[in-house]
Amino acid sequence: MMKKAAFWLALALFIGQAGLAIFATPEAWGHSLSVFGTHLKFDLMVDSLSRAMLLCISMVLSISLLVGRYDISGEEHRFNFVNLLLIMLSGMDGVVMTTDIFSLFVFMEVTTVTSLILVALKKNNEALEAAFKYMVLSVVATILMFSAIALLLLVSGSTSFSIVQAALETSKHNFLIMFAIGIFLCGLFIKAGLMPFHAWLPDAHSAAPAAVSILLSGVQIKVLGAYTIIRLITSIFGYTSSVTYILMLVGTISIIFGALGALGQRDFKRMLAYSSISNMGYIVLGFGCGTTLGMAGAVFHLFNHAVFKSLLFLNAAAVESQTGIRDMNKMGGLASRMPLTGITSVLASLSGAGIPPLAGFWSKLIIILALWMAGYHGYALIAIAGSILTLAYFLSMQRRVFFGKLNEEFAYIKEAEFGFSLAAVILATVIVGVGLCFPLLLNTFLLPIGNIFGG
Hints:
Elements: H1 2-23, E1 32-35, E2 40-43, H2 48-71, H3 75-97, H4 101-119, H5 125-156, H6 161-170, H7 175-192, H8 201-207, H9 210-237, H10 241-263, H11 268-288, H12 292-323, H13 339-353, H14 359-373, H15 377-401, H16 418-436, H17 438-450
Helix pairs in contact: 1-2, 1-3, 2-3, 2-9, 2-12, 3-4, 4-5, 4-9, 5-6, 5-7, 5-8, 6-9, 7-9, 8-9, 8-11, 9-11, 9-12, 10-11, 10-15, 11-12, 11-14, 11-15, 12-13, 12-14, 12-16, 12-17, 13-15, 13-16, 14-15, 14-16
């Protein structure tokens, strides 16, 4: 009984969090949480950026839960999956709400360890190899970040965001501080899967169950990578010319080489994984330009990528569930047998490529405009070139999977299970709805997020 109820209880919790993220004021979330009296206390803070992340987390977890109900076999395994999602929820919520750098580290590790278990869920050679690679690089990231926190504690005497930030203000050119910031950023680049720190990401995203791939690409790399980079730079490290150079260099490399990597793939999920690397580059590049508009564009693209990439991984899962393969070169014409999957994948691909009036167009446009207005004309042109490459690999995917002559082997397949279709319709509606409502969102939601940057 409890195992059957777990799915609905978790879904209600995720939807409830989404409602709070949209409608509750920041004050309604509270400021601190005490565990075991005063001995273990978490200081919490919710601003516009945190609310956007809480909405992303609850939305992607809901989709992952829906897909997992059909994708993961066995009642016991599904129950374990739901429990792991709840642990992920607590870890990621902690990351986006805490104001203490050590608590942030602990919540990141909770999320990472849970992700590791989820990647290995299938227990086959491919999954175990991907989990091992993920574990090795996660350990490297953990050592880098923990060492950085130790150095910051040595300098400031505290792990609170505000106290560390004040200490760094008075010792900006201290070698230990610059070294700590550098290795902390390297650890976060690994967590985000940005190039050249991405070695774990394509294997983990392609080997994991579909519900987990949605979770990893949809929100996990954003919370542990993009969000944490934005939060630490705006709240602690500050914006310097060195930080700008590093962010824009890593963002540019990720955009171009992630897109080129996606172009060369035959595996459907692996192509989407490289696409995620490229899109993470857009987020970092937009934030890296250091303006309010760039910040707004970065966070908006973070949200949009969570939606359209979750939908594309969902489409890949639907195709694999019906055909039993992920090799795009062996597919073709599937839109005639799976029309809903075909239509929603076209919408997600066009949004990812930045075609108007879909949501992805607006976020890429804001990032390019922010780069241009800030004087980074070369980076703006690279972002446009990356978008052309994105359109190329998505069109290639559509031609090989959904259009052209139907492979006779798949002449009798049907549309995927109801759970896949329902989740696909919800995400496609968000893509179209957000795109059409963009003029309303710009001043009421997006620019206020950019204002936390103070630009």
